[in-house]
Amino acid sequence: MVVRKFPRFPVSAPSTLVQRDKLRYNAVVKDLSLKGCRMESTLRPFTGMQVELFLQVEADADPIHINKATVRWSGSQGIGVEFLTIAAPEQERLKQVVEHLSITAGQALIVPKGELPKK
After folding, report:
1. Weakest mean pLDDT among 16-20, 96-100, 104-108
2. What is the CATH code for 9-104?
3. Hey, where are the domains in the chain?
4. Which of 83, 71, 74, 2 is nearest to 35 (CA)?
5. Of 61, 74, 4, 67, residue with least CA distance to 32
6. pLDDT tens figures, 50-105
């Protein structure tokens, strides 16, 4: 069993991946954590590519906006993205979503001290 600093939780959330402020690609987030996600998309990115994300994790809410993220890997399992810059209100929304996913997955979310911005 792989123990992760930021546990991933399964999800199926439509998203938009933006490259260079203009190229938009549809994507689906398959795993989500506080620091990143695994997604599927028609985009074939390279490792290190900088992107912006809009995660539609709640049907009736605005997407969670990830200002800056980087592609860590891509392959047959999808695209692994690390979140680099998230505004504090968006970080709080992401935290609430991940906490909800952790409860429904039967796991308690443990956030390392100092990893999330204070309210």
Report:
1. 104-108
2. 2.40.10.220
3. 9-104
4. 83
5. 4
6. 999 999 988 778 999 999 999 999 998 899 999 999 999 999 999 999 998 888 87
